[in-house]
Amino acid sequence: MLKKKIILSIAAVCISFAAMAQARIGIKGGLNLSTITVDNSGSVKDNQMLPGWNLGVVADLPLVPRILSFQPGVFYTTKGSKIDVGDKDNPTVTNPYVSLKTNPSYIEVPLNFVGKIPVGANTSIFGGIGPYFAFGVAGKNKVESNVGTGSVTTVSSNIKWDDDTPFNTGDPNYGYNKLKRFDWGGNLQVGLETHNFLVAVQYGLGFGKLQSGSDNSTDDKGKNRVLSFSVGYLFGGK
Questions:
Q1: Which residues are registered as beta bridge partners of 131?
Q2: pLDDT tens readout for residues 210-229
Q3: 119, 125 contact by CB (below 8 A)
Q4: Do residues 226 and 33 touch, judged by C-beta distance below 8 A?
Q5: Which residues partner with 29 through β-bridges?
């Protein structure tokens, strides 16, 4: 029995090393369509999708070759949302046009587990799930308004980040002009891999609130939602 366990352990180690030997690293990027929720049901109400982008590196570490992989990555990604109020083409003093945009940018680390279904010698369809962790690094708030006087007023400012950490949530400041620097959530994705090329659609659900400060019934509902369309290429492998 002991010999059997030793043999099985050695076999498992050999399989792990064989899988790691097939590990690939690549680049991936594409379009983001992001918005922010406004209530606990996940509704975005008047918030509209804001176009953005993502770009980074990703690794494919086979756990079961051509069947199951672990895919960590590091990405620069933009998020946020916009709200348009009034008639843009026909603003008046009593019904002015106002456009509000918040566009934070993050360094994001996804940790996805990806299941694959081979459909050819070098082609697979896949689906993945996993958490992500993000760190806010940049971004802008922008307000455009036209009260019907013929001129458009634009005000832009850098997003202010709370300096809190996961161990310090005592900062009393909160609001769209000061966001929590740390974000986290989950990813769902589907896609196609062929000859090391990747095409993927991913939906990211933020679980952490965006506004800094202590939790309350007003500001704990705003969370990131991002629909991404990406292409990539993995170097190495057969």
A1: 186
A2: 877 655 555 567 889 999 99
A3: yes
A4: yes
A5: 55, 231
Strands 197-206 and 50-64, sheet pairing: unpaired
Q: How many CA atoms lie within 13 A of 116 on its CB side?
A: 25
If DSSP codes are grouped into helix, strand and coil, which group holds residue 18? Answer: helix
Single-letter residue type at 137: V
What is the spatial distance between Cα 82 and Cα 79, in angstroms, rounded to a whole number? 10
Closest by alpha carbon to 203, among 187, 219, 185?
A: 187
Provide the token pair at 232. 């990539």
Three-state secondary structure call for residue 141: strand
Cα separations (Å) of 120 from 35, 136, 192, 196?
37, 41, 11, 13
Tokens representing 44? 């975005």
Instruction: Name, in order, each residue with C-beta under 8 angstroms of 39's C-beta and a sequence gap of 6 or more.
Output: 45, 221
pTM value surpassing 0.70: yes
Q: How many residues does the chain have?
A: 238
Contact 3, 14 (CB under 8 A): no
- Percent of the chain whose pLDDT exceeds 90: 47
Q: Which amino acid is at 237?
A: G
Residues 6 or more apart in contact with residue 159 via CB below 8 angstroms: 102, 103, 104, 136, 138, 139, 140, 141, 177, 178, 179
